[in-house]
Specification:
Length: 162
């Protein structure tokens, strides 16, 4: 008969199987930094959209938007109340999309539709829109020149009585 020796089972540990402490700490710091940046952008401390530095205002126009029962959007000059333009159903979807986002933010902040918006043309050719109620600024150029042009047209339309 063969002599079988039984060895008690040993738990094998290898130094190369353990994760170094510095790697765990580094990973934790990276996760904390990512969460801090996300929180900062979400709360408005950091803006996800940046604007070009040191550009000067060339022109501004304050306007208001009002929805009609049949789905049109009436645009008026905020100072005079004069009719500026009308967006028919199915037209100017970019303007409608921007307005939906701003209206949602106003609703979350318990702000009505009465305060106007300020369109700004900058010396570097950019257009921005600022919500006078919430202070939110949207750089319209980040959506492409065709979309920015939709708002740029509102700068040049003269007010009419209506």
């Amino acid at each position: 008969m063969a002599d079988v020796h039984h060895h008690p089972q040993r738990r094998l540990t290898h130094a190369h199987d353990a994760v170094p402490r510095w790697a765990i700490i580094g990973a934790g710091l990276m996760i904390a930094a990512a969460l801090a940046l996300a929180f900062s952008a979400r709360t408005g401390v950091l803006s996800p959209f940046t604007t070009a530095p040191q550009s000067e205002v060339v022109d501004t126009r304050q306007i208001t938007f009002a929805d009609t029962a049949d789905g049109r959007v009436l645009i008026r000059d905020a100072a005079s109340g004069a009719f500026v333009s009308e967006i028919e159903v199915g037209q100017e979807n970019f303007i409608r999309g921007v307005l939906r986002g701003l209206a949602r933010e106003r609703m979350l902040n318990d702000v009505g539709a009465a305060p106007g918006f300020e369109l700004v043309r900058w010396s570097d050719g950019r257009f921005t829109m600022r919500d006078l109620a919430t202070g939110r600024v949207i750089d319209l150029g980040v959506f492409g020149p065709t979309n920015a042009e939709a708002f740029a047209r509102l700068m040049t339309i003269e007010g009419a009585s209506r």
